[in-house]
Amino acid sequence: MTIRAFISGCASTTLSDGEKRFFSEACPWGLILFKRNIQNPAQVTELTRNYREIVGRKDAPVLIDQEGGRVQRLGPPHWPNFPAAEKLAGASDTTASVELGARLIANELLRLGINVDCLPVADLRFPGAHDVIGDRAYASDPLEVAKLARAAADGLMAGGVLPVMKHIPGHGRAMADSHLELPKVAISREELERTDFAPFRQLADLPLAMTAHVIYEAIDPSLPATISPKVVGEVIRNHIGFGGLLMTDDVSMKALSGAIGENTKAAFAAGCDLALHCNGKMDEMREVAENSPPLDGKAAERAKKALDRIAAGPKALDVAEAWSRFSAMIETV
Questions:
Q1: pTM for the full model?
Q2: Catalytic site residues?
């Protein structure tokens, strides 16, 4: 079965007959889950198992956004709440708490068959910017953000879960929410390289990254990063030096105007390896699939290298002891 270079959502807690046929025919690289897909542990485990059975790959990626704070798809009563990045950054032992928190997130995810987490957020926090990032950022200092994002990525991979660094090359300065409109950043390239881009450059060896639907006027005044050959080539691949698997943010977000299929095609033309589509609407899923190439060449090599990072499975963990230690670290935040 030929794998196509996209990641798809699904509509509900089980796969419909139409979705089963679609996944069997289109064979997306991965599946992404949202709250609408989450009911209880047994249901999520069956959903991930069913998807992998249909596409015929035991290691087929199943993704989720489980950051902590405002962005976590799994929560009570079946799963614990995790603190937001900014709160973790205020813990007694910051680096250790971030890494251990991510390790515990991985433990929750892997038990459900979820092997990719859209974490860490390597965006900076800027006073006065839109709070779509806000407390999802670890800090305002590029070196601190890079250090803590690295800790989160290490924690996930120790737990057998692949991290997705986001939102490359930097969303923190945006004055608008890209879910709803297209943010434009009007600042010099030199300043962007000194600040926004800097954490990603420190983290360029991570296996997977998600693009930002943001226009950087000093680099490409007309196209957001996701569909800009100049941003992807000159900034993400060259200046930042990211050599891993590059996926788009959701191509159905309102920051990208025009048809879903055209946005998908433009992302690949810009140099992205994978298109992400999240809302589970079948007509859009088909459009994305039709405009996504087979996963081959360099993109396939990057995908294999990424999955190889977690092929050994999770390292041993005393879960009860780890929770006790983590709780003590964050009790004052």
A1: 0.97
A2: 179, 249
